[in-house]
């Protein structure tokens, strides 16, 4: 298939989600002519979020209206290297997005800054517990960038997203009732924290009684109408509960579509091409320079878009796959323990526990917001002494009631031991829906030598290219961490005067199950760092081997974290863009010399 | 456009909407009336007579009528499933269906070559064949208690319908039954919003600004659907 | 291309004001084209002559009138399909007197009774712009379908003679005495190119505007008859239904962004802002605001609007016993709030909104039925869409909710009936047939 060569542009951006939209905005501000390629359709609140038709749980959460079209492309998954990986044929464990806005359109809105210690986790663990504390086979690494360096970019992202939250410390001064473990900020949140829903209110009280330090979760669901620095406007969140899986009809959940693209679309330097499925980044004969990008359009025609600078900013695993398909960076070989692309693939270690309250308390689980809630960080990051516990990593604990809707409630059913259908199920369902609440342990997942991404030898996508293969399972360290933290949930449940509690712990020997939704927070695989032997990208997210390629996304995380990734991805995008603008565009070449 | 993943074809969709707009035209009447516990008139588009009987019988056991609310048939669940067969979802177009199809451990997920509509076709035929062989009658004609036992065996994977383990078919049926009963009535089930009123789900109002912090006050407003039907 | 012109114009505009009529023609053609483009914005030519999604000024926008459908013409410089063959004198005669090149009289959907006041300099700049700054489009517009005998244009000649000011009369009106130059400039823009009265002034038996300038008396801009189901409100100083509670800053911001704390633009005004006022200079918008604020109330006004918290309290407590209250919380309250305050400037308030309290409920009924789009402007890049509820609510339900809105939060306007709603539903079905269906995807904002 011969590709038609298009007129060259300065920058091509692959993917129309948060990372791509931030990079495109920054590059047009720097005077660059930018083409954004998005493989899915164009999307807008006017269409995808139109009330009342969009308030449809079946379409949003069960027919995956805003998500990746698996019929064209998916991944294969296995638990270990001895198994044959099989295709992920139906959406379940994780839900990658597609279309303009990407995951940034269907996300919930939880918007954290990365804990400072998580950015230097290897150094921190060695400093506190000694090198031997790191389990065999765990590839613990630092990011190569510090919180202080990223702070202005966390701040920028919060202002663009219209993030609601309660600060704790600003410029070293305690200013509010926010998270006592959170680092100092240069500015307050642009909006005050969202109100607590009833369950979060009860959880806040109980967590305090249990001796923990609850705080309002920072949320990119606006607590009031808001105009961001680009002039884009948001409505206020009204706790409708249709965040995750939906375009927010109130324009109150931050998305590239609402917060950045209205401005970008008006910019003559910016061009968006939808239904443009990128096949590969084109390389010159030296394999050290990208010359552009080849993609297929809706009609099956193939085009090559030449560009001076290529920004790969699709979803985490698409970025890794595109690097592998294009020959950017050395593919990871777990046996030889060499190569970097595919290395340190991580997930997130989430379990949800249930608490039943007395029947005179209505928990109104349908009221909710994707990013809001109450959390405590006493067992997250390095906020507690791991020495006697013997594991690395931690987990925030929270009530993040995002709006439990009817189908989800029916499928969850009643308390443990209740049948899944019939009259007993009905009784359990009604009791549970009206009087229970959910508490998550939202833990980190560490990176291991034998957990990785590569190309599948068997299955192909609709364009004849190999699918990405995931080799993933839960490890002893992460299971022990989860069980320790879930026991702390038990302490809170006792303080809530619970009638019944179901503590959901990760079990030893139970493999990763692709059939049950866990989270879409996948990370790593093309990580940032200071050593090209253990990272695919330098600390500016520039490909070590191909300096005119930058790869922006959660793929850059060297290991998992307890927090949701979007805040960090956005900050990394602004961080990378800043250095491209300040340094790279003036003198294209490696931003880190070895 | 991508909007209509779950919306059935125009013809069948109009059947549902004709009913819905009749409700809109007389607001309050349906809301306050008590629907008789009988199936809505629906001529199945996908299922044949034998399949339709099975589907009605099985759904009515998965969600039986009782003091809490009507059964799945009165809720229009079989109609919902029938309409879903005529969608990209029903035809398997939302799934990765590329060869080869290789069996593997259950935790690596679905690996059969069958779309949902095919799972129903084969699963129902297999279940009826099993009942005929072991009970001397097809499923729909068994007493309710025996139907429950057969469904329990299916759920536990104690049968196989050719290459389809019975629990796989059962999960398909159960999840679609829950979807039909609890989804917006625009999709053909949840007639009269009765599943929502049973659990206290407000539906498509999607605004709780006044209620988010009225702690201890039970949310008092009834349900409303996408078409504007209220209960 | 056009963006560049606007910037060039804004940079060189200071001093271009009331005295433009006496100014020398610009030597630099680009500056002249830019000046003409500015006049085209001030005269809002694009709102009628540009169909969404089509080439600028290629015409084709349908006006559904009781006598039939007329379409705006192609005014690109194409010699056959457009106005390329017009001399400047012919152009000026068409714009200001409504006489086509062949001598026929234009339908007064073209606001030449207002344009009659435009200065020679402005008409010249406009001519240069249309001839040299607009790309020719060779596609002719479909003919009007007005049935005989109304299709005969000769009665229009009589109409024109009776209702369109002559050059002398118009000149005198423009040169009448004003307290200050800003007021004079504002009057010129509003009464002349801006043709605000075409919608906002009531019309007489022959469809003529009952007043063409502020000097003609208090009917001028006192609120017009429904256009496409939208009811233009009074732009005079009434405290409830006019601009009495608006500051000059509010008016400037509204004309620039379509959104202020009191209200948001909808209906035809969104096009007027999008094609017209958002492109105007701060100085000119201030002049318009200053002039509008000089217009006293048309009629002795009832007491000023005062917020009444009772409705909000009842809804907040879950009391939906008032007629229309349930429909309000099911359909409206998410954005406009149970307290009626909305979330300005994202979602406009209903409490105290002049449109809501207007004697005519037509606009309110129409917006509930069809929804509306608040378009992005240069300074407000976000668009917001209100969905239409025609499919979700029957006539009685709409009547109940509209009456509820008109009688809550101190609004105290008359209730409406199901037959009022039915009439608006019929008229909007007629006016949205065809053109909006085709244009709606092009109109759909993308945020």
Strand and helix layout:
The complex is a heterotrimer of chains A (594), B (231) and C (447).
Chain A: E1 4-5, E2 9-14, H1 18-29, E3 34-37, H2 45-48, H3 57-62, E4 75-78, E5 86-87, H4 103-106, H5 116-119, H6 121-129, H7 147-161, E6 169-170, E7 173-174, H8 198-209, E8 214-216, E9 226-227, E10 233-234, H9 256-259, H10 261-264, E11 270-273, E12 277-283, E13 290-296, E14 302-312, H11 316-326, E15 343-346, E16 349-356, E17 374-376, E18 397-399, H12 406-412, H13 422-435, E19 436-443, E20 452-460, E21 466-471, H14 476-495, E22 500-502, E23 523-525, E24 549-551, H15 566-584
Helix pairs in contact in A: 1-15, 7-15, 8-14
Chain B: H1 10-25, H2 29-32, H3 49-62, H4 77-85, H5 116-135, H6 144-155, E1 160-161, E2 164-165, H7 166-182, H8 194-199
Antiparallel strand pairs in B: 1-2
Helix pairs in contact in B: 3-6, 4-7, 5-7, 6-7
Chain C: H1 2-11, H2 29-42, H3 45-49, E1 62-65, E2 68-71, H4 88-97, H5 112-115, H6 120-133, E3 145-146, H7 154-163, H8 167-174, H9 181-191, H10 197-200, H11 248-257, H12 268-276, H13 282-292, H14 310-316, H15 325-331, H16 333-336, H17 354-357, H18 362-370, E4 372-374, E5 384-386, H19 395-407, H20 418-432, H21 435-443
Antiparallel strand pairs in C: 1-2, 2-3, 4-5
Helix pairs in contact in C: 1-2, 2-6, 4-6, 9-13, 11-13, 15-19, 18-20, 19-20
Write a compact overview of the structure shown:
Chain A: Belongs to the GMC oxidoreductase family. The complex is a heterotrimer of chains A (594), B (231) and C (447). Chain B is an all-alpha fold.
Protein architecture, described:
- The complex is a heterotrimer of chains A (594), B (231) and C (447).
- Chain A has helices at 18-29, 45-48, 57-62, 103-106, 116-119, 121-129, 147-161, 198-209, 256-259, 261-264, 316-326, 406-412, 422-435, 476-495, 566-584, and strands spanning 4-5, 9-14, 34-37, 75-78, 86-87, 169-170, 173-174, 214-216, 226-227, 233-234, 270-273, 277-283, 290-296, 302-312, 343-346, 349-356, 374-376, 397-399, 436-443, 452-460, 466-471, 500-502, 523-525, 549-551.
- Chain A has 594 residues and is an alpha/beta fold.
- Chain A has a single domain, classed as 3-Layer(bba) Sandwich (FAD/NAD(P)-binding domain).
- In chain A, strands 1, 2, 3, 11, 12, 13, 14 and 24 form an 8-stranded mixed beta sheet that branches.
- Chain A is globular and about 70 Å long.
- Chain B has 231 residues and is mainly alpha-helical.
- Chain B has 8 helices and 2 strands, in the order ααααααββαα.
- A two-stranded antiparallel ribbon of chain B has the order 1-2.
- Chain C has 447 residues and is mainly alpha-helical.
- Chain C contains 21 helices and 5 strands.
- In chain C, strand 1 and strand 2 form a beta hairpin.
- Chain C is globular and about 70 Å long.
- Chain C starts with a helix and ends with a helix.
- In chain C, 53% of the residues are buried.
- Mean pLDDT of chain C is 88; it is low at 1-25 and 434-442.
- Chains A and B meet through helix 3, strand 5, helix 12, helix 13 and strand 20 of A and helix 6, helix 7 and helix 8 of B.
